[in-house]
Structures are given as structure tokens and as C-alpha cells.
Amino acid sequence: MTATVLTEIVAQGVMQITMNRPERKNALDRASYAGLIAAFAAAEADADIRVLLVTGAGGCFTSGNDIRDFAASADDGARIAIEFLSAISTATKPVVAAVEGFAVGIGTTMLLHCDLAYAGASATFRMPFVTLGLCPEGASSYLLPLVAGSKRAAELLMLGEAFGPQAALDAGLVNATVAEGAALAAARDKAKALAALPPQSVALTKMLLKRGQAASVAETLATEAKHFGERLRSAEAQAAFAAFLKR
Ligand code: COA
């Protein structure tokens, strides 16, 4: 496991996965994605792990994909990010998220694949794909209209403005908002409750909840990935990355 992703058994049957690059607001670079993918694979392979709890270090969930990697990824695009999205979207065990601080880009879209999510009062969400000259990822172009409605999805994905925990709740991205700093405890409580339930019944229920969308999610991930890879190389995106890195 890489140091930018930490795993720890925090309660019986609960593996906490912490995105841990606080000096970069937990921006996900290739090593971080590799760590997340390895953590999800380890959890799938270990019958003692019943629930995954995803969070970020330093009072921040994640600022999304590392923009330096975006700027440099002319060849393989966001391949490893897509591998992670594939892992989280097909996880057979429940995934619970605790969001404090920023949840940007994939930090927001990964919540669409979590079974439960809790946000602290000062959490800030944003999907600035268009702002960056990119396009939606994480199957958000399919799942967000389903959970948030088409108008709200267009607003969040096209304008790419930041929004708070209440708007995230209204959009169906989180289950509840809690006091600032209380998201991890809230998420951990629910993770522990899930871990205490009959695991085969939990897994079956998750499968039944997801099966109607599974093929469309996989197809949308692939379609978005193709466009996203092209957009990464576009002049619009490269100019946006350069502007961020020059700040
Ligand atoms: N990729 C690379 N570096 C990032 C990053 C990212 N996604 N997000 C933050 N960082 C870096 C900053 O460049 C800064 O580095 P520095 O200390 O060398 O200047 C450091 O992390 C701290 O970030 P900073 O911007 O100073 O924190 P902030 O609290 O003022 O703002 C954010 C936090 C998340 C709002 C802001 O950093 C941001 O907008 N990041 C980019 C988010 C993004 O567009 N992600 C991609 C989505 S598809």
C-alpha cells in the first residue's frame, strides 16, 4: 500500500481507506489510484472485511485528480483513474464515505458509487469538468440525472460551480449532513452497523440494488473515458491546467 493511501481496520469488519496527501488536498496522483485499487482488491479478497469506509486526511476528502498528472497524461489519459472507478463501481461489499472539506471532481463523482455517504457542515463539492475543458467522468453523466434529476445534473455538471452539503443532500449525493468534523464518526457508526449484519444478505441486497444500473454504468464509464482521454489532450483543457499550475 502506498503512503498516499492508508488502510486500517478501525472496527470489526470495517476497513478504513484514507486518501492521504494532505499537502495537495489529497489530490489523486497515479500512486494514490494504485493504492485505492489495491485497497479495494484486498477488501474483496478478505472475507473478514465486510465494509469499506472511504475518507480523506487533514479535514479534506479529495481535490480530485492531480492536475499535474492531467497536464502530463497525453498518452494513457486517465486510465488508472478509470480502473479505480471500475473497482468502486463493482465493489461487492458496502462502501461508506465520510466527506469533510473539499470533494472535487472524482471526489464528488465517486460518491455516486458509495452506498452511504455523510458530509460535514463545511464540506464543499464541485464537478468542474467543463470549467477545465473536460467532460463528465465516473458515470456521472448517467447516474447524476438519475439521483438528482436532469435539471440539477445539468446545473452541477455544466456550470461546475461549488456547492455545499445541503445541496449535496438535495442532489442525492449524501445521506445526511452532520456537524463539521463529525462525518467520519457518523460514517464509521453506519459502517459498523453494516458490518454487524449478515454479510451474504448485505452483499445480495447491494447486488440487487445495483444490478439494474450495472450495464449502463459500465457502458457510460467506457464512453466517458474515451471522450475524457481526448479532452485531456485538447487545447481547452491544457490551457486550463496551465492556468491552475501557474497560480
Ligand atoms: N492537483 C494538483 N495539485 C493540487 C490539486 C489538484 N487537484 N488541488 C490542490 N492542489 C495543490 C495546490 O496547487 C496547492 O499546492 P501549493 O501549496 O504548492 O501551492 C496545494 O495543493 C494546496 O491547495 P490550495 O489550492 O492552496 O488550497 P485551497 O484550500 O486554497 O483550495 C481547492 C483547495 C481544492 C479548492 C483548490 O486547490 C482547487 O481548486 N484544486 C483543483 C481542484 C480540481 O480542479 N481538481 C480536478 C477536478 S477534475
Can you describe this structure?
The longest helix is centred in the last third of the chain and has 34 residues, at 199-232. The protein is an alpha/beta fold and 247 residues long. Helices cover 49% and strands 15% of the residues. The chain is globular, with a radius of gyration of 17 Å. Helix 1 packs parallel to helix 3 (79-89), helix 3 runs antiparallel to helix 9 and helix 5 (140-148) packs across helix 9 (199-232). The strands form 2 sheets. A 6-stranded mixed β-sheet has the order 1-2-3-4-6-8, sandwiched between helices. The chain has a two-stranded parallel sheet with strand order 5-7. The protein has a single domain (5-183), classed as 2-enoyl-CoA Hydratase, Chain A, domain 1 (Alpha-Beta Complex), CATH 3.90.226. Coenzyme A is lined by residues 24-25, 27, 63-68, 102, 104-105, 128-129, 132.
Structural class: alpha/beta
Please give the order of strands in the largest beta sheet.
Answer: 1-2-3-4-6-8
Rough shape?
A: globular
Q: Could you list the spans in which at least 5 consecutive residues all have pLDDT below 50? A: none
Share of helical residues? 40-55%
Compute the number of structural domains: 1
Task: Return the CATH class.
Answer: Alpha Beta
Give a quick account of the main beta sheet: strands, pairing sense, barrel closure: 6 strands, mixed
Query: What fraction strand?
Result: 15-25%
What's the alpha carbon Rg, rounded to whole Å? 17 Å
Known CATH architecture? Alpha-Beta Complex
**Bound ligands:** coenzyme A
Overall number of strands: 8
> Could you name the CATH homologous superfamily?
2-enoyl-CoA Hydratase, Chain A, domain 1
Predict the CATH topology. 2-enoyl-CoA Hydratase, Chain A, domain 1
Number of helices: 10
Q: Could you give the distance between the termini?
A: 32 Å
Order of helices and strands: EEHEHHEEHEEHHHEHHH
